[in-house]
Amino acid sequence: xxxxxxxxxxxxxxxxxxxxxxxxxxxxFKGTVGPGFTIKMxxxxxKAGTIKLVVADKSSIHNFHLTGPGVNVKTSVASTGTKTFxxxxxxxxxxxxxxxxxxxxKGSFTVS
Length: 112
Ligand SMILES: [Cu+2]
Hints:
Blueprint: H1 2-23, E1 28-33, E2 39-41, E3 49-57, E4 65-68, E5 71-74, E6 81-89, E7 92-97, E8 106-111
Parallel strand pairs: 1-3
Antiparallel strand pairs: 1-2, 3-6, 4-5, 4-7, 7-8
The chain binds copper (II) ion.
Residues 61-62, 98, 100-101, 105 line the site of copper (II) ion (CU).
């Protein structure tokens, strides 16, 4: 009886240890631009701190450009694909736009 229990606990411990480096501390947020004239974030940060921003740039005529306190990151207009940025958010408002169409392809979020 004892050995299977210990084996199970060991397995859980190992899986937990393996999961830590990949997942843990840094929350991930997803941004998408294109393929049409749309730009969005699936969910938006609400707290200051370091995040990973994973941007899916699905168009060669749009980009994803995030600016705000201490942050200025963007994908290129011409290229497409997925790009990951690690950024540290401070209290304040952040805006994300597509630079060529920033009058209407835009969004924002505020962290505290
Ligand atoms: Cu655009």
